[in-house]
Amino acid sequence: MTYAVRAGLQKFNIATDLEIASIYQYYARWIREGKLKVSSDWNKNLKIKFTAQDPCQIVRKSYGDAVADDLRFIVKSVVGEENFVDMYPNKSNNYCCGGGGGFLQSGYNEERRAYGRLKLDQILATGADYCIAACHNCHAQIHDLAEHFEAPYHTTHLWTLICLSMGILGENERAYLGPELAEVGL
Amino acid sequence: MGEAAIQIGPEWPSAFMDRVKEMLPEGGHLDLCLTCGACASGCPATGLNGMDPRKFLRMAALGLDEELTTTPWVWMCSMCQRCIYVCPMQIDIPALVYQARAAWPREERPKGILGSCDMALRNESCSAMGASPEDFQFVVEDVLEEVRESQPGFEDLQAPIDKPGAHFFLNQNSREPVTEPEEMVPLWKILHHAGVDWTYGSKGWGGENYCMFLADDDNWKRTVATSLGHAHELGCKVYLNTE
Fold first, then answer.
1. Where does CATH 1.10.1060.10 sit in chain B?
2. For residue A148, what are the domain limits?
């Protein structure tokens, strides 16, 4: 994970010539360079609304608002600018979902969900049909919050939406999409 | 009547905070607290187990080391660093939490986090689910073959492991190969369409790091060094984190 590597290099004085990057930075670059031909046309009439979680490890703890802007650029490019609803607060000032830091594996599930209420309320306030969670801890926690508190949103990975917008998302790659997107672009 | 006030003299011991200060650049600013409470009011963990970040820091300043290094709250703070972000003095409270986690005897730390770190130490995958390099290779090749055969346009899809000289070294959260392998496919397709020269590594492909969450420095270092070392051996230029 991005932060474990970046902070680990610094903390343990490990020297490397490697560039340590987040794939969000490259997704955004490949879209800008025209290598990834994404389109939001599929959502022009559907008007399905999306919000996105800012993973702490990548945004606040690693690359700051610049990578949060990359994330928004990607999401808007694939779902349509008018169909993206930001949560508040956001970017470096966003709240942790409560899945991070090992919380998901800590055994303190009641406390983890109490922590997550803030995230749940933020997502619900956007009215979005989907929350994009491009980090596994966030994905697992936000998905669990929806199930536990019976919230109506779906939780999905970013790569799912990128492929959907390019018309290359296979039938078996839609586990986190709702019925309204089950056949889009097939 | 409430509890008697804690009396603090010049010799009051605050060994824990002093020790953490020595480990941090500029002492983590741990002495600079204005007690404003911005950290606590913006923290989702405030109130859990009767604790909040401001209280935690004040207790450290008072030298309540026993309470700090035994409260389970350190496992309910996700070390998200929002408290640093909102703090006018940029105080590194999460580093204090990290060191309080590290003060727990290793075997008494939460079983789930401990188990996930230990799994990552079982082999060179550094996977919190313990999947071996061979298991990973089998799943990747199996899924790849199926996509090539069943999805038109992806007959040439690639998912290389240990490809020397690839530009990007990718890691992958273990959840995909172990529990939902079909979720790797969209990522591969994106890389394919972008014309990217990439590879996974047989060593250090696991994208997650529970040894860091466990506050186990030696094994955090070991897993990061294994993964980066392998990327370096392969001659990659960019270590690309998928999360």
1. 15-104
2. 2-9+21-170
pLDDT score at B1: 56
Q: How far is CA A102 from CA B74, B92, B195, in A?
A: 11, 19, 35
The verdict on a CB contact (< 8 Å) between A9 and B237 is no
pLDDT tens track for A30-55:
999 999 999 999 999 999 999 999 99
| Residue A65 belongs to domain with CATH number | 3.40.50
Does residue A177 lie within any of the structural domains?
A: no
From chain B residues 52-111, the ones with a CB under 8 A of any chain A CB are 72, 75-82, 85-86, 110-111
Has the ipTM of the complex gone over 0.85? yes
Report the residue of chain B nearest A101, measured CA to CA: B78
* Domain assignment of residue A44, yes or no: yes
Task: Please tell me the class of the B15-104 domain.
Answer: mainly alpha
Q: What is the DSSP string of A28-64?
A: HHHHHTTSS----GGGTTT---EEE---TTTIIIIIT
Shortest CA distance from B126: residue in chain A:
A1
User: Which of A94, A97, A137 is closest to B213 using CA atoms?
Assistant: A137
Whether A18 and B207 lie within 8 Å, measured CB to CB: no
CB contact under 8 A, B237 and A169: no
Size of interface A-B (CB pairs under 8 A): 205
Per the domain annotation, does A183 fall within a domain? no
Predicted structure pTM score: 0.95
**pLDDT for the residue B243:** 84
The model's pLDDT over B51-97, given as tens digits with 9 standing for 90+, comes to 999 999 999 999 999 999 999 999 999 999 999 999 999 999 999 99
Three-state secondary structure call for residue B68: helix
For residue A137, being part of any structural domain is answered with yes
Residue A100 burial (10 A CB sphere; 0-12, 13-18, 19+): buried
User: Cis before residue A55, ω within 30 degrees of 0?
Assistant: no
